[in-house]
Amino acid sequence: MSREFLLPDLGEGLSEAEIVAWLVAPGDTVAVDQPVVELESAKSVVQLPCPFDGVVSRLGGEVGTVLHEGAVLLALEPSGDAAVEAAADAPETTDAAEETSGAVLVGYGTMSSTVATRPVGAPGRFGRRDAARAAGGPPSRPRLDPARRFPVVSPIVRRLARQNGFDASRLEGTGPDHLVLRRDVEAYLASGATTPDTPRPERSAQPEAARTAAVDGPSSERDERIPLDRMRRAAAAQFTRSRREIPEATVWLDVDATRLVEARRELREATGERFGLTALIARFAVAGLARHPILNSSFDSEREEIVQHRAVHLGVATQGPRGLVVPVIADAGALTLRGLRDAIAAVPDALGHGGARLRGGTFTLNNYGALGVDGSAAIINHPEAAMLGVGRFVERPWVVDGAIVPRTVTELTLSFDHRVCDGAEAAAFLTFVAGCIERPMTLLAEL
Fold it and tell me: Cα 29 to the chain's mean position, in Å?
């Protein structure tokens, strides 16, 4: 009997994904937990393994199709002896197939597997790879296709095409997955084509030399348009919505962190374990939210209500390979310092495997000091009500008991939604966290 593999839940709030490439085709035999498709959500591109085996009978969509959670990704028929067993006892076969997968994390297999390579002939975002081209066969006659966009990697190729009045991404390339190469542009020009398929902007009465300098500039300084991928489009929409909807205000404070650095060293000597400054400040922030819970809120503009959250789901802003993301540590308020440290340390690995929770945060910690800056007018992570920022830790002259001495200093910044609380509440939270940094032993009262 045929079995359907449905698009699973890809994470918090991610209910749809675009098909980037198929790793299998109808007629292929699929093993349990074998990657079968590349999907791009608003946050990442992942290869999705199939939780059961069989022979692919049909695919659930073409490359570029956007599927929603629960949609059919592909259908499989039993293979080999399994087909005979299925005909004799379909329910028993189904149970056996389910028992061999064990894919407890939705959308990801539990068996050891490597990233699958896309086979020649498999459909990809820019079309199928041509077997003759992959084998080194002669390229077809170059042509522009205004209805499609092909991948272009080299800036030289883009510039060469632009100088000759057409867009290189409209030219079907002869590289892998129709990648446009320099030879493709040169072959198109050599073919004698003089009328590009893409419209060119109207020329003004301005002299050619002046027009080129004003629009394009020198050949080494011409503009390049970079299209946003799904992840950056989602981030841009999030930033824009936050700035549009949240009347944010910011308070900041310079803090003497010398004792915190010393306490971290003493903690390592006592336990033999490393504790990062981010984990320590995260623990202070969670304790501060227990005292000032209004900052652990969101604003419901439709009902004009403040939603104060009971649990602290702490977002930790992280600069990943695909841009800024905010993985969420669920119920951070219930974690010990060691548990919070381990959860933060696990973030990079979770991002690399596509298993990080990226939605549902109630408060964000942004350690932009790791980027070498002291402060930032950070954008609140909508729909949260506040974000705590931490600058770099540097040696500065500081007045202690009337004397100027060198101390380790950092800057704390709190951006908050002024609809949710006023400056007094925000300042009280910030000074509490600052007090914990300056005198870490004061946190013992909160544990």
Answer: 32
Question: Is 41:69 a contact under the CB 8 Å cutoff?
Answer: no
CA-nearest of 172, 162, 95 to 130 is 172
Is residue 342 within 8 A of residue 336, CB to CB? The reply is: no
Distance CA 306, CA 297 (A): 7
Collapsing DSSP states into helix, strand and coil, what is residue 131?
Answer: helix
- C-alpha–C-alpha distance, residues 224 and 93, integer Å: 56
Q: How many other C-beta atoms are found inside a 10 Å radius of the C-beta of residue 172?
A: 20
Supply the pTM of this predicted model. Answer: 0.56
**Residues 349, 88: Cα–Cα separation, whole Å:** 44
Structural domains in the chain?
3-101 (2.40.50.100), 127-221 (no CATH), 231-446 (3.30.559.10)
Q: Which of 364, 384, 368 is nearest to 376 (CA)?
A: 368
Task: Give 342 or 112, the one with higher predicted confidence.
Answer: 342
> Where on the phi/psi map is residue 216: left (φ > 0), alpha (ψ -120 to 50), or beta?
alpha
pLDDT tens figures, 320-340: 666 778 889 999 999 999 999
Name the residues annotated as catalytic.
Answer: 418
Whether residue 360 contacts residue 315, with contact meaning beta carbons closer than 8 Å, is answered with no
Could you give the 3-state DSSP secondary structure of residue 287? helix
